[in-house]
Amino acid sequence: MRKFLNTLSLCLAILAIGSWLNATPYPIGSLFPLVSDGTDVTMETGKFGIGTGNPQESLHVGAGTDASDISATDLLVTRAGPSNLSVRDSTNDVETFLFASTVGGIIGTITNDPLEIKTNNISAISIDTSQNVGIPTLTASEIVITDASKNLTSAAVATYPSLAEFIHVKGVTSALQTQIDGKQPLDSELTTIAALTETNSNVMFVAGGAWTSDATPAIDCTDCVNLPSGGTHPVNLASDVTGELPHASTSNDSSNVHGLDSGAFVLGNLDAAAEFVQRGTVNPAAGDSSAAVIYAITLTAVTFGTAFSAAPVVVTGGTVDVTKLATGAEAVTTTGFSISGFTNASSFNPTDLDWIALGT
């Protein structure tokens, strides 16, 4: 035993002298790897490995054999599969972890505790145990947007009915903003819009006026007309209409009826058969004064101003310059008829024989 110890002392002395002469250290780990139950604890130049015989970093823990993708790494935890690094407060049972696997990288708490991320020792992001995320730099009750530097910031939210500035509407123009917030008049071009105001089942057409801040139109027209929902025509019947027809006119309305000439008159609304009336006056030639008691009126042709779709009923009248005059129509067609008659006057020249045609 004494001989063994002397030999060991001599070897150590030689190593020490060699190290001193060559200025080269001889780490014991490089000469004597430590092995326990098949798990390596390896010491190499500048590297220490636990669970690996080939440490890749200053401290390499785990059975993985590849180095970190980050060159400035001193502590590496690897496995041949999912790998995890845990930090635990054993007294309060709080544990935080870093985890890597095929699902990706995960950071968080494995215990029922919140997670907080700080910069400059000030909380930047906090996540509570219900996964609610808080950012202390934001303002409560405002929305989150990005500023020009792409940093998260907050913007005011308009609350109805106050309608504060909609500054969070992306791309909103000042003109649109004015209309949205409802605090100023609309553009002048909109003042010419005819507003429809419904009041007591009536519709009022309003022209002109500027829109006010409460979005109601200013009523400044002088000739506004109410159209009642019951259908009553807004004409003053007492002054504008004679007779008992509420829709009749005192003037010739033929110009308002398509296809009718100046000799056509409309009596109220057209009936279901769409009938209308025409009237006119004709001057037949003088008759034969040599006739005995009854004298004939020369047959005279009449052409309608507007053709009927079917032969109408024609009623002829008399004249005031001949007594005991009888007239009638014959050969009635859709475009005209012939008028004739008889009188007891031996000498006459009848004028202004009236007629009326009724048809469709």
Describe the structure.
A hairpin with a 4-residue loop joins β6 (83-89) and β7 (94-101). By secondary structure, the protein is mostly beta strands. It has four helices and 23 strands. The chain has a five-stranded mixed sheet with strand order 1-2-3-4-5. A four-stranded antiparallel sheet has the order 17-18-23-20, with no helix packed on it. The protein has a three-stranded antiparallel sheet with strand order 6-7-8, with no helix packed on it. It has helices spanning 2-22, 28-31, 174-181, 237-240; strands at residues 34-36, 39-44, 47-50, 59-61, 75-77, 83-89, 94-101, 104-109, 115-119, 122-127, 133-134, 143-146, 152-155, 195-199, 202-206, 226-228, 264-265, 276-282, 295-303, 313-316, 326-330, 336-343, 353-359. The model is unreliable at 188-199, 245-256 and 268-272 (pLDDT under 50). Among the domains are: 22-80, no CATH class; 84-136, no CATH class; 188-228, no CATH class; 279-359, Sandwich (Immunoglobulin-like).
